[in-house]
């Protein structure tokens, strides 16, 4: 005779079955399906349990690895790009490669007008413009109307030799040209000009007895320009040219230009187009100018141009 289980026994079995089904349902929701053992009995996984037996390890596949970025193997670190960084330079033609007038522009240039002024006329123009100057009393051989700049021009500072040096003296006519020069520099966000000298007593052209415009306080040698963004345009480092190269115009092609090269040349060639100076000599002119720019105004100009 088959013994039937008691009612209490049946209730206990039903309760255990319900608990087992509820636990299985929660486990299914919280994690991926668990492997089953013989007869379909669920195999519980406990984080704090001992390492699984070899049977469980074989039955439980490892979770898939996170997908690697496209083009990169999952077991490799991203490799550095082998291609060169793209150039940040603007495309040619650059502004300095536009044509620059030459000798034909001399008659109507501002430089020629300034060179022809008498001392009284020049003083009157300086006063009219409000250019901050201090007229020099005492000998300054060769300079018709000697003075020193005492403040910025159009917000641009000219960092020249101080009171103890004659190299910081210039003629009134050059001061007018520098005022125009500074107006152009301000357009290019130039804060300061590093001046090596204006006046050099008895200075003459290399290999010649002909006086240089420095002997009259009518020339400026500058070595660098400071920009508002903190950069410095250094002539020796940033010009990027060779003797005989064209500094401006369609034939101007620097060898290995940088952003600073382009900005420096854009400034110089813009000044040349404005006719502020008669002669503008760059490192492309000769080896003596490898580290500075020479700009001058002449009382009787034989020509005009940027070289």
Can you walk me through this structure?
There is one protein chain. This protein is an alpha+beta fold and 307 residues long. The chain has a domain at 95-306: Muramoyl-pentapeptide Carboxypeptidase, domain 2, CATH 3.30.1380. The chain has 7 helices and 10 strands. Strands 3, 5, 6, 7, 8, 9 and 10 form a 7-stranded mixed sheet that branches.
- How many alpha or pi helices? 7
What is the CATH C-level name of the domain at 95-306?
Answer: Alpha Beta
Q: What is the helix/strand order? A: HHHHEEEEHEEEHHEEE
Which structural class do the helices and strands define?
alpha+beta
User: How many β-strand stretches?
Assistant: 10
Q: Which fold name corresponds to the CATH topology of the domain at 95-306?
A: Muramoyl-pentapeptide Carboxypeptidase, domain 2
Architecture per CATH nomenclature, i.e. the level-2 architecture of the domain at 95-306: 2-Layer Sandwich
Radius of gyration from the CA trace?
41 Å
Q: Tell me about the biggest sheet?
A: 7 strands, mixed
Low-confidence stretches: 22-86
Beta percentage is: 5-15%
**Mean of the pLDDT scores?**
80
Helix content: 25-40%
Shape: globular
> Termini distance?
125 Å
